[in-house]
Amino acid sequence: LKFDDEKVTKVEPSVALEEQFGGNGTETGYGNNVPIKTQMRFSNAYMLVYIRDSDRDHILCDVTKDDIAQHLRERLDKEQEEKEKRKKEKQEAHLYTYVRIATDKDLTAQVGQHTYFDLVDFHHPDILNLRIPKKEPFTEVKRQVEAQLGVPESKQRYWMWSTRENQTYRPSKVYGPEDENTKLVDLTLKDSRMEMGKSYLNLFLETPTKDDPHGELPPLRVDKTMMLFFKLFDAETQTLSYVGRTFAVDSDKVRDLTPKMCNFAGYSLDEELIAFEEIKFEPVVMCERLERHNTLKKCQLESGDIICFQKDTQMTGPAAKYHPLLDEFMSYIKNRQIVHFTKLDNHSEVIELELSKLNTYNEVTEALAAKIELDDPTKIRLTSHNCYSNGPRPHPLKYQGVEKLSEMLTHYNQLADKLYYEILDIPLFELEKLKSLKIAFHGEAGEEVETYTLRLPKDSKVEEALQELRRRIPNAGSKQLRLVEIFYHKIYKTYDENDKIDSINDQYWTLRAEAVSEEERNMGPTDKLIHVYHFTTKDQISGNTTPIHNFGDPFFFVVREGETVLQVKERIKAKLNVPDEEFLKWKIAYCSLSRPEYLKDDDIVISRFMRRDNGPWEHYLGLEHEDKNRRSRTKNQSSYYDKAIKIYG
170: closest CA among 257, 276, 277? Predict the structure, then answer.
């Protein structure tokens, strides 16, 4: 019996065995010979647990707390408490302001490690988080900070963060003494941001620096004084770090900040420095060089701006090949991308490279060639990753067909981190001037003998492809060959020798080459060349009758005037080398528009084929029998849906 969600049906024993697995419900074909659409089988996994009837009361009894181990009870109780706590916090979130406070210590820890742009990530777990009722005054923030960080209230000064027009997030306005008695609910109306239904107030805590001999906060004139932050770029080590902050006025010049920057970095006061303003990083990085003779007003600097500086020295040696200037380094950080390369035909070995999304096609292949120690990068062919099938895309990338690495990795607006590669025997740009054809050569009995891959100039004709095949096929000699197109086990087209090979597509159709039989070469005026296909009308899984399903290798066959079905059967049996016992089970039918008309032994075959054409949608002679190779093929073929699932307890 088959149990579905809503019904129970009776099935054959074979169904009970075969339909416990996924996969395709229809024939998947050979190689490129794949049907356009296949019917998927979806099956669920069940587990039946059997118990003795005499143990029913003992096993199916009610579970009490005493039946649960002590450590499990404690764990469950703790989880329940945390769940209730989260529920209560969510219900009371509108009554509280969540204050997040960044300090110089946080900036030092994050810049160059966790973040490179702006100053701090407020979602970092080390950021101080306070949960304070909205009705409390701002002094409650200072009181709790003193309790947690040990900074006296008199040495605390807070700056509000704001999002600028260029999407950077910087400290912008100081909270003065007049704000200390303001309720948090009033501050958050102006300065807070909503996240996950909670009202957050982000602050920067300014404390006295070590430069102040008295350990006091410096006096501040809001209308003239600006607070600037400084980052140091070390070109030799390729590192960025936060080194401090200072106050300045509009009339100061960039050169006036040099002693302070040298002091931050531990350099001598006569060290030549280059200074940049970090302006923005979305959608592109912008770091503008500051002229040392310009005033801060002319440079359009204001509170919360970031000045990055470095030594003004010419780099030599191994470090010179990296990023000598800060703006180049920041652009690299913005666009760097870890890419995993794996061979197209073997995914077991993975090569990891750190590249830039702005790298050109040549730069990517050169980096990979250096890693795998390949002399000629042009012999590498890349294929992009399909994010949905988790495998390579059907077609490789053209030589220099994309401008940047980001285009190679993007698939339907999703950015992958994987590329597949092949090592060719000739440069890719030369290969692309050629047409590659994968052709299966079949013997006299219609069986596949060997598959050949030909490379010919794109303007070549089919005749030249057949000549190349004759040179490769053993004992081919001067045999007359023909090239046919097979799709879904049917002959769809016979190519003329003058056809251009550039118009042939072997991605979705199978190309087959075969010798023209002597019988066909010596056809009489009343003989007719027909198509013969294998088919079945019985589903091997369920045993039910289905529409015609073709399989196997189709072939051409000459029928003669007055020849009966019995005579044709004998010649087909001899051609295909089918044992007598097996051939007795075969039926012969005239098929037109997927409808079989079974023929008797004394029927005249040629009378059914009065039309001269044998196109793909025309009539053919069908051989109905069991597809014995189907099960073995299906077993070796995998489907995207046949993936293991993990069940976690």
Answer: 277
CA–CA gap between residue 102 and residue 304 (Å, rounded): 13
Q: Is the Cβ–Cβ distance between 379 and 426 less than 8 Å?
A: yes
Which residues neighbour 451 within 8 Å (Cβ) at sequence distance 6 or greater? 438, 439, 440, 441
User: What's the residue count for the chain?
Assistant: 649
Beta bridge partners of 277: 288, 307
- Tokens read off for 343: 């061979």
Q: Where residue 401 falls among pLDDT bands split at 50, 70, 90? A: confident
| Rama region for 23: left / alpha / beta (φ>0; ψ in -120 to 50; rest) | left
Structure confidence by residue, pLDDT tens digits, 55-113: 888 888 888 888 888 898 889 889 988 888 888 878 777 888 899 999 999 999 999 99
- Tokens of residue 383, six digits: 């294929």
Please give the Cα distance from 54 to 111 (Å, whole number).
69
When computed from its CA atoms, the radius of gyration of the chain, rounded to whole angstroms, is 39
First-to-final CA distance of the chain: 30
3-class DSSP state for residue 572?
A: helix
DSSP one-letter string for 520-532 = HHT--TT-EEEEE
Q: What's the CA gap between 323 and 643, in Å, rounded?
A: 44
CB-based contact 245:256 (threshold 8 Å): no
- Distance, in Å, from the CA atom of 332 to the CA atom of 329, rounded to the nearest integer, reads 5
C-beta of residue 484 within 8 angstroms of C-beta of residue 493: yes
Tens of pLDDT, residue by residue over 174-202, are 888 888 888 888 877 666 677 767 788 89
The whole-angstrom separation of Cα 544 and Cα 322 is 68
Q: How far apart are CA 205 and CA 226, in angstroms?
A: 15
Map tokens 């024993």 to a residue: 13
d(CA 534, CA 624): 6
**Taking the model in full, what pTM does it have?**
0.61
DSSP string, 347-375: -S-EEEEEEETT--HHHHHHHHHHHHT-S
CA distances from 428 to 33, 367, 378 (A): 27, 16, 6
pLDDT at 535 over 90: yes
Q: Are 73 and 65 in contact (CB under 8 A)?
A: yes
Q: Rounded to whole angstroms, how far apart are CA atoms 111 and 117?
A: 8
DSSP bridge partners of 24: 40
Q: How far apart are CA 630 and CA 380, in angstroms?
A: 37
Question: What pLDDT sits at residue 257?
Answer: 94
Q: State the alpha helices, DSSP H only, in 115-257.
A: 139-149, 184-191
The one-character DSSP state at 182 is S
Both structure tokens of 376: 């000629």
